[in-house]
Amino acid sequence: MLLASLLVASFVIFGALYLAPGNPISALSGGRALPPASLRVLEQRYHLNQPFLAQYWYWLENALHGNFGVSITLQENVSSVIAARMWTTGGLVLYAALIILVVGIGSGVLAALRPGLADTSVLVSTAISAALPSFVAAILLITLFSVKLGWFPALGNGTSFASNIRHFTLPAVALAISSLAIVARVTRAAVREEADREHVQTAVSRGIPARQLIRRHILRNAAIPITTVSGITIASLIAVAAVVETAFSLNGLGAYLVQAAESKDLAVVQGISLVLVTAFVLINALVDVLYAALDPRVSLGSRAQ
Amino acid sequence: MSPRRRISAAAPLLAAVLAATGLLTAACGRSLGAGASSQQVSPTKGLVTTTPAGTTPVASVTWAVYRPVNSLDPIFAFDYPENTAISLMCESLLHQAPDGSIQPGLATVVTPSPTTMVFTLRPGVKFWDGNPVTPADVVYSLDRQMEPSYGGFYGGVFSRVKSIAATGADQVTITLNQPDYWLEGELSSIPGVIIQKSYAVKEGTNYGTPAGGIMCTGPYEFKSWTAGAGVTAVANPHYWNPAVKPLVRQIIIKGVSSAASFTSGMLTGAIQGSYYSGLSNLSEFEHSSTVRVYQGPGEETDALVVSATTGPLASVKVRQALSLALDRQAIISQVYDGAAVMPRWLANPGTFGYGQSVFTKAYDSSPVLIQNLAQARKLVREAGVTGQTITIGTSSEIASIAAETGAYQQAAEAIGLKVVLKSVSAADYINFFTSAQARAGIDGFITVNYGDYADPAALLATFALPGGDQNYDNFSNPQMTALLNQAEGTANPDARAALVAKAEELATKLLPWIPDVQPTSVLFLSKGLTGAVASFSYMFAPWADNLGGTR
Questions:
Q1: Global pTM value
Q2: In what helix (H) or strand (E) does residue B161 lie, and over which residues does it extend?
Q3: Is A178 within 8 Å of A134 (Cβ atoms)?
């Protein structure tokens, strides 16, 4: 399943980039007219003078042997380009996911169970944050918390774990903010729905303590839609991360993917895309596993894989 | 001889968002812009070539470039990030001083005959590892630039070179097929960077990459290059030139791809210095208590490349009319936020690296290219092209280019011409320069272009000589060709300057390209930091020799 996705994705991406106008050598030379002899040397070095299928096959064959090629612009192995940047994107998405899960689900549950002021303020704030695209959120956050207040750094990755956390806080919030609202809304609706169910009313009438009621009878049942929406939004963060990484000058995979695509650095685009596709598939697989754990009626074996 | 151009796509885009939302703008007026415009006619007023030398040690400086550095190999260095990093650490055979003049670098030069250049290495010059620079290193470094099998970008620079050979214990001789007094300029720039032969041979194609590193001679030595953290250089305690004592313990060259990110990074102190160019929100820094902005002489020309071989723009009169109709002050204030001056020639006055008095005198007697619509309309009528169409290539994704294209559209329509815009993506804009197919049907497009060293001819030759790299409209004028060829073979700097000045005056009449504005070089420094070179020569020669703290 994963391998098939990767193979199809790699071919489609390779083809799309191949068909797009421009060529990596002119991107490399900044449009400077190169001596024809130099041009020939460079084209040969990167196999650019070969037909499309030959180029793709060359890439695929190497990739199957664990060699993802060399970046034309950086002259560096694609695997080391990815390794150096993977933790930035991974950490950022993880941090944002944590914020979405804790704050999103937390505020959703709160709003569902505490009608009145709490509910209204969650509704209003999620209405605003749902409409806030990441790049606008990034600018707002930088302006307020870095430039005006000076609480958080405006850019960069940080060097130690503690400074990583400080550097990643604003980007993670910018990344999480609109998805967070969606998760909060869905949580609120799901919890409301479960709370109104007969078995919950029965449990209330039997005098089951509120804590136990919420945990076992409401949240457990509401967990399925919450897991679905959380899974989808968190998987989508992988793609949105590119925007946030650029805004905060984080050296992540997404930001570099954009740059590599602009300079038609095929091997890098391929490598990074495949990592992102893998992560996407894995997150979705994880969500499937969670379904099974949450709901005994769902068994993994019966699902068409 | 060898021009490059800036097409930084992402930065202006976010800057535009920023400006539109007005979020970072602390409600300050654009005092660098329209208000100060009357003074911008004077090209060098208020410009500084250097900043006062630093006096105290500094632990670490983060220096921003508009995107991460791709290569530290001088044969692949053509753009701002690579040049900034290489010129921080490496030195050339000759040296381009901040005022653009050519000085001895690692070697001194004499020319016993018009076709012979003899370089003598200065005593004591050595690489970071302590080994002396030898003639073999020099021959290797230049051969590497010249030899096509390395795939380098500068081969054309050496077109008149017959041979390069070691001719003594500290001597290298270049023999030319015909006199080439432009070569000294090139050798004071990136094509003249000297690297260690044994190191480069050992690293092979890894030289200048994160895996291979580099071996040069400068006051800052290469320490590390990690994809995330940028290129780190540290002070070289054994620098061969005792006159220079590097004060900054480490300098990190970091790619910052968005103008918004750069602005907030600079304002919050996450970035301490930069030569970030083309910012349309420069005035935001004006009232900052943490950042100082200097403007120095620039060497770039912002121009409309003429690629029309037929149609209205192929006519000199129409080009003159369009030039007269262009509102250049608007470009200075809106695109450059004041960091550009009105042109008199196609060349930026910051390129007067030799024969300065000759150049300055000729330049000052040439008229400023101010707007004159009446005159422009008259020319269009004379040419009989009223109502005809010009097609301009542009990219709506690159804010500066879109704005300048808009200015041309306005100018053309004001004088009775029609304009069709052909917009491409930011990434594809480069194809106008490299692909005849992309240029098909396009009459012109905007560029910011510069030569390899301070000489007006360095850029002019690329588009005003037949066969020039950027001569897209097959421009050919016998007088122009004669002037430039004669200049290349003229030893005396003043005599050469006089010839080049004549060529520039001619170019300003014939307009093989139409000059828009002349950008200044912009230097950002955190308060407490001083000593960086402020002129555009930072692109070609060490710029942090005097960088340090203030008391």
A1: 0.84
A2: strand B161-168
A3: yes
User: Sign of torsion, CA B344 B345 B348 B350?
Assistant: negative
For chain A, helix (H) and strand (E) counts, in that order, are: 14, 0
Residue tagged 């912002």 (tokens)? B302
Main-chain phi, psi angles of B65, to 5 degrees: -125, 165
Number of neighbouring beta carbons within 10 Å of residue B173? 17
Residue pLDDT, tens place only, B213-264: 999 999 999 999 986 578 999 999 999 999 999 999 999 999 887 888 899 8
pLDDT tens per residue across span B125-172: 999 999 999 999 999 999 999 988 888 888 888 989 999 999 999 999
**Token digits of residue B231:** 């290129």
The predicted complex's ipTM stands at 0.74
Comparing CA positions, the residue from B126, B133, B134, B151 lying closest to residue B74 is: B151
Q: Does A148 touch chain B (CB under 8 A)?
A: no
Record the tokens describing residue B54, joined without a space: 């630093």
Token pair for B112: 């016993």
Window 55-74 of B, Cβ < 8 Å to A: 62, 67-68, 70-71
Contact B107, B153 (CB under 8 A): no
Which residue in A has a C-alpha nearest to residue B19's C-alpha?
A139
Instruction: Inspect the interface and report whether the beta carbons of B153 and A31 lie closer than 8 Å.
Output: no
Is residue B291's pLDDT more than 90?
yes
pLDDT at A288: 85
The CA distance from A297 to A277, in Å, is 29
Separation between Cα atoms, residue A196 and residue A244, nearest integer Å: 40
